[in-house]
Amino acid sequence: xCISNSFWRHFSCNGVDFTVTRKHPxxxxxxxxxxxxxxxxxxVVYGHPNPSKRRDLWTELRNIEEGGVGRWCVGSDxxxxxxxNERKSKAHEATGPDRGFxxxxxxxxxxxxxxxxxxxxxxxxxxxxxxDRVVVNTDWFETFPLALVLHLPKLKSDHCPLxxxxxxxxxxxxxxxxxxxxxxxxxxxxxxxxxKQNWRDDCLWDTNITRFTAxxxxxxxxxxxxxxxxxxxxxxxxxxxxNLNLDSPLWNKKRCxxxxxxxxxxxxxxxxxxxxxxxxxxxxxxxxxxxxxxVTQCRKRRKNIEALQDMNGxxxxxxxxxxxxxxxxxxxxxxxxxxxxxxxxxxxxxPMILEDKIDVLGYxxxxxxxxxxxxxxxxxxxxxxxxxxxxxxxxQWSTVGKSMTSMVQSIFTTPDLIKNFNGTNIVLIPKVEV
Length: 434
Hints:
By secondary structure, the chain is of the alpha+beta class. It has 3 domains: about 5-170, Endonuclease/exonuclease/phosphatase (Deoxyribonuclease I, Chain A); about 185-305, no CATH class; about 310-335 and about 355-420, no CATH class. It has 13 helices and 15 strands. It has helices at about 50-65, 100-105, 140-145, 190-195, 205-225, 225-245, 250-275, 290-305, 320-335, 355-360, 365-375, 390-395, 395-415; strands spanning about 10-15, 15-25, 25-35, 40-45, 70-75, 85-90, 110, 115, 120-125, 125-130, 130-135, 150, 160-165, 310, 315. The strands form 4 sheets. Strands 1-2-3-4-5-11-7 form a 7-stranded mixed β-sheet. α6 (about 225-245) runs antiparallel to α7 (about 250-275) and α7 packs parallel to α8. The protein is flat and about 75 Å long. The model is unreliable at about 1-10 and about 280-285 (pLDDT under 50).
């Protein structure tokens, strides 16, 4: 098949509009509209099976990009792979990644849309590969951050049809509404005073946690506010002051104040995206907000499950079937079939612990040791059930340190108390073959 043999001039159905603007033997390119949404560029490809002739496809894609594209989506049958694990064959040396494909993908800074269902989209005999995929540029990805691709069952072809689910952010269901500490709060000038008002050393640890988490959510709405709205308002205010084109000391002072406020807001935004991206190598001041935003959206897409393979090897896609298969899998996984477990014989012997070492193990941890352990943790590591990550306790140590020390030391004197603090959040995720 050659794409040029298909006569595509215009496509329209139920508010969906696609107009072809460029044709090539291995590609059709055009503008795509959905209802009132702004147009985005769509390239439907069919890579030539011959690698030498397929080079024309990568050249044409570069030409399209150099001619100017906005939000760009490229997909269908590339007849090539990006990674070696995307091909499986009994041949002694299976064909590896297409170097031209890899170079174009990296140089154009494209993102491979997350997919679900079977890993391979093409199969013939014992050979199978992921030849079909959808890749997008950063502008398209930021417009549809929750989009993913479903590999649908094969019909009368040896290729899987591809279904792109855009999934608007507004229609995404929020399953987890539990409290989470918001790192940018620590950058607000009133936050430290707020913590002191709502954290008392003479109260029980659970009482302090409950009071603080309840009060801080109201403080967030009334005092801290929405970072994005504050940023846009400050941009508009700064633009208005610049348009006045005044050069008096009063106006210069006002512009400086707005600029400093905007700089602080941008730093808060940076920390917000770093926290959401779970980045481990961040240093304050990196200013890579767009990168952290992209990482966050990638994590969001990976957390969504749109397809599962049942016990019979069939793929299911509807939500009710997904819930049922997930529940059945873990119920079977954690169901004990043999209740009479045999006694474990470790054998061998263990060295005796000297008495002076035993005495050291019984010591109660000092405040300095507790503080050192706390500050050794990663500030933005995932929190426990109370929603407070290490950053909160580290930044507010002068206020919460005394009660934290009392809480930890009480566990040393009454070990049974550990069950009240040793809770954790667990997400059960089945392993998949990559």
